[in-house]
Design brief:
Protein name: Adenosylcobinamide-GDP ribazoletransferase
Pathway: Cofactor biosynthesis; adenosylcobalamin biosynthesis; adenosylcobalamin from cob(II)yrinate a,c-diamide: step 7/7
Main location: membrane
Number of helices: 12
Enzyme class: transferase
Strand content: under 5%
Largest sheet: none
Radius of gyration: 18 Å
Order of helices and strands: HHHHHHHHHHHH
Low-confidence stretches: 1-7
Helix content: over 70%
Distance between the termini: 48 Å
Number of domains: 1
Shape: globular
Transmembrane segments: 12-30, 42-61, 67-88, 118-138, 144-167, 187-207, 213-231
Length: 266
């Protein structure tokens, strides 16, 4: 990283690039020395990064559909998603289930979650969630516009929900070595506003384009609000707060909640 830019002159564009760098494997050039403040500010663009990922996945799906059957197109698109993110959130999902399933005390759970090895709980949870994603998208694949809308909503809104948890819980102090700690310690009101506006603009745009019914949008919002409450209670009960892995798990759960909601209303 270069320090050509003064820390106080980092632009919003640079913060967006930092958010892309943090959440994906997409190569970007950061022309400044990243600080804790920058990482905190970059979280406002996590939903936007999700929208970017959704756009790339939707595009790849359209290309695959020209060459392959529906099932293969969805599997290839999911593989592209794993490559783009480095399975960042899926790793957190698996770690959470290994830790919560295999540990009794908070310290034990955190130790297990930091272990790079995949346990039985994590492997089973990872298999199940990937299968649910595939089956949901396969069902929605009867309509090209329907599955494209689902991909955009799933990628964007899930990251909005996961990032919003930061304002409602304390970071688990025992997890001091996590790479997400500097970023996750704070979410300003302006960052929360941008995060929510990104999700709102996507929903309104899809409604205006008649790709999503307003009734469906309201149901999605209600489902995600309920899920957010459940996630907060779950993480507080298990750890007394949250870790980076918890945010990854929250993203994964939110994503499948969106897909399953869309499936249920069709």
């Amino acid at each position: 990283m270069h320090s050509n830019l003064d820390e106080n002159k980092v632009t919003q564009w640079q913060l967006l690039l930092l958010a892309i760098s943090f959440l994906t494997r997409i190569p970007v050039e950061l022309r400044f020395d990243v600080s804790t403040a920058h990482l905190n500010q970059a979280s406002r663009y996590f939903a936007l990064v999700g929208l970017l990922l959704g756009g790339l996945l939707a595009l790849s799906y359209c290309v695959f559909q020209l060459l392959f059957p529906l099932s293969i197109s969805i599997l290839l698109m999911m593989a592209i998603g794993l490559l783009l993110t480095g399975a960042f959130h899926e790793d957190g999902w698996a770690d959470v289930w290994d830790g919560f399933g295999g540990g009794w005390q908070v310290e034990q759970k955190l130790t297990i979650m930091k272990d790079s090895r995949l346990g039985t709980y994590g492997a089973a949870a990872l298999f199940i969630i990937l299968l649910i994603k595939f089956q949901s998208l396969f069902f929605l694949g009867n309509s090209l516009l329907g599955v494209l809308s689902a991909i955009l909503l799933g990628q964007c809104l899930s990251r909005m929900v996961a990032t919003s948890l930061i304002i409602s819980m304390d970071y688990v102090s025992e997890d001091a070595t996590s790479k997400v700690k500097p970023l996750a310690m704070h979410l300003s009101n302006s960052s929360l506003t941008i995060l929510l506006l990104t999700a709102a603009v996507l929903l309104v745009s899809l409604i205006a384009a008649s790709l999503v019914l307003w009734q469906t949008a309201l149901i999605l919002i209600a489902v995600l609000l309920i899920l957010r409450v459940i996630l907060i209670r779950w993480f507080k009960r298990q750890l007394g707060g949250y870790t980076g892995d918890c945010l990854g798990a929250a993203q994964q759960l939110s994503e499948i909640a969106i897909y399953l909601t869309l499936v249920s209303v069709l």
